[in-house]
Amino acid sequence: MNLVKRFILLFFCGTNFLLAQRSLSYNDKLFATAKVWGFLKYYHPNVAKGKFDWDKQLFEILPLIEKANTKDEFSKICIAWIESLGKINNCSKCLKLSKQDYFDKNFDLSWMQDSLLISNELHDKLKFIEHNRALGKQYYASIGKGAQNVKIENEKVYEDFTWDNRNLRILTLFRYWNNIEYFFPYKYQMDEDWDAVLKEMIPKFLNVNSELDYHLSLLELVVKIDDSHAGFFTEITKEYFGKKYIAAYYKIIDDKAVVLGFYNDSLALVNDIQIGDVFTKVNGESISQIINGNDKYIHGSNQATKLRNNNYSIFNGSTDSVEVEYLRNNILQSKKVGRYFFEDFNYKRPVKDKWRILENNIGYVNLGSLERDDVSGMMDSLKNTKAIIFDIRNYPKNTLYSIVSYLNSEPKEFVNFTRPVINYPGRYTYEKYMKVGKAKGLKYANRVVLLVNEFTQSFGEFTAMCLQTGDQVTTIGSQTAGADGNVSKMELPGGLSTWISGIGVFYPDGTETQRNGIKLNYEVKPSISGILEGRDEVLEMAIQHIEAGN
């Protein structure tokens, strides 16, 4: 062996020795433990079948992990832990299933090869479990009926949980992180790498100073998955933002809060609030400063939805009034505005017509009010109109399949799904779902326009996708909520809960609706001047489109 080769060999041997002896921080050890604990929970045949109290196993392993100083010491503890869980039989069926064609944008077990944290022996143990994993019915996760979204099951609630119990805080973080790691269909679309999120959140969950601090850390964690379904609300987070509202609702336009209407007309009058008032500052802070300051606590798949979800963060508080600066008739003014508990408004959503005929013989349908039993009567009433506008800037009833049967001349595919593979967590199957419409089924041959915005979410987006298959359908509006797919609930220690989009929803060409929202033909957003003039600019654009015959 020549001198150069000998030097290279000695270099790599020395490097490997240093890696093996590198001192691990407590955060490093918790990061690796979260990975191993979650993997065993869903992959180890005995653990995944519910034969162990897996939370208790975590609590028992944490003190041992804390004493480990190096990768080898950490790995030896994990190996002994794995061996204590019982024999794993060879799984010939697992090999066959491993060769299936999967949707694998979320799948990532590369952490097993992290030479800074995992020894070769531990890596081999983990890979053996992957190749001989749990099959059949699982204890902690299943596929729901109908939409077949994931169901997270049999998790302990810990009703007596207190925020200063460090073990339960760690459990909460590990449980949530691994649920997302293995069963959130849109993990690959997140803005932040999910491993990086775990590293960031470990010290936050370790070092909380109060119950509020803990709840805000949880809220921040949930917001990081970029899902409009992923709300997290507790009495403590509500108190943080404030349970008292002003008497008006509003829309954020150009970093200003523009009044759209009132929760209570009398209280709005008492406080001299008018539709079209443009609020620029609240308690001396600009609207953009408030939005940016709260951004990590406001959930949403995209910016349009995050702005929508700021409804409780701009003017809310615990005091009886708030100082505001606003524009009215282009004059900048300031005053105090009263704040009230929401129940004091006695607010009732206005009852809207299910359908009507606009000027120039154009039909208009409010899908937020239309019931399935109304569809045939509605279509009969509007059959002679020159066009129909379906307003989906709301949450529609289950009318999509009944309506689309009037709009298609032939069956068309409108949606594909990804569904989690419970027997190979982290992997998904990509499935063509269904066609809508019937051969020679076109019953309404004129133009159809769909109206959408950030309030078009989930089933609203699914409805729009379905109706877009019609022969002459145009979609007008602004970015939708980007949260498609049936909702799956997660239980967290302390009786807390949150949700995720539980299946992946795609257009037939593979385009995600998640985060992106549905496809638009024309983008139109309300303007401040339009609100001041009492105009519905999106509806106006739809009418112009119809009249122009575009």
List keywords for this structure.
single chain, 550 residues, alpha+beta, six-stranded antiparallel beta sheet, six-stranded mixed beta sheet, 19 helices, 36% helix, flat, disordered N terminus, PDZ_sf, Tail-specific_protease
What would you note in describing this structure?
GO terms for molecular function: peptidase activity. Residues 1-20 form the signal peptide. Keywords: Hydrolase, Protease, Signal. The chain is of the alpha+beta class and 550 residues long. The chain has 19 helices and 21 strands. The chain has helices at 3-21, 26-43, 45-48, 54-67, 71-83, 92-98, 120-131, 166-183, 194-206, 211-223, 235-241, 265-270, 287-294, 303-308, 375-381, 400-404, 459-467, 528-532, 537-548; strands at 141-143, 150-152, 244-245, 248-253, 256-262, 278-282, 285-286, 321-328, 331-338, 340-341, 355-358, 362-366, 387-391, 412-420, 428-436, 447-452, 473-477, 487-492, 496-501, 504-506, 522-523. Strands 4, 5, 6, 7, 8 and 9 form a six-stranded antiparallel sheet that branches. Strands 11-12-13-16-17-21 form a six-stranded mixed sheet, covered by helices on one side. The chain has a three-stranded antiparallel sheet with strand order 15-14-20. The longest helix is centred in the N-terminal third of the chain and has 19 residues, at 3-21. It is flat and about 75 Å long. The chain starts with a helix and ends with a helix.
The low-pLDDT segments are 3-20
Number of strands: 21
What is the global morphology?
flat
Residues in helices, as a percent range:
25-40%
Radius of gyration in whole Å, from Cα? 28 Å
Through-space gap between termini: 79 Å
* Mean of pLDDT: 93
Protein name: C-terminal processing protease CtpA/Prc
Keywords: Hydrolase, Protease, Signal
GO molecular function: peptidase activity
Signal peptide: 1-20
